[in-house]
Write a structure and sequence with these properties.
- The chain is mainly α.
- The protein folds into 2 domains: 1-48; 49-89.
- The chain contains 1 helix and no strands.
- It starts with a helix and ends with a helix.
Length: 90
């Protein structure tokens, strides 16, 4: 009877070990899935950030172009004012 009880205890231990292994495997799968989700979220955020930087760069270039146009207009107005003054003297 002692031999049979020892065998059952060993079987129970093996069963508990299998259950433990199974739960560890489940936790690991859960962690990997969660980690994958985090990586996807991070990638989306980085892509959104680079898109924002691209848009900011584009806006800055547009502003520089507009500034050039404004300066050119200002210069033209100054020249026109000088011409107008000369015409008035004549």
């Amino acid at each position: 009877a002692g031999h049979k009880q020892g065998k059952m205890a060993a079987g129970g231990a093996a069963d508990a070990q299998a259950r433990f292994g199974h739960s560890v495997k489940g936790l690991l799968t859960e962690k990997v899935t969660s980690c994958g989700t985090d990586v996807i979220a991070l990638t989306k955020q980085v892509l959104k950030g680079s898109r924002s930087a691209e848009l900011l760069g584009q806006a800055a270039r547009n502003m520089v172009m507009q500034e050039d146009a404004i300066l050119h207009s200002e210069d033209s107005l100054r020249k026109m004012a000088i011409i107008t003054t000369h015409l008035q003297y004549q």
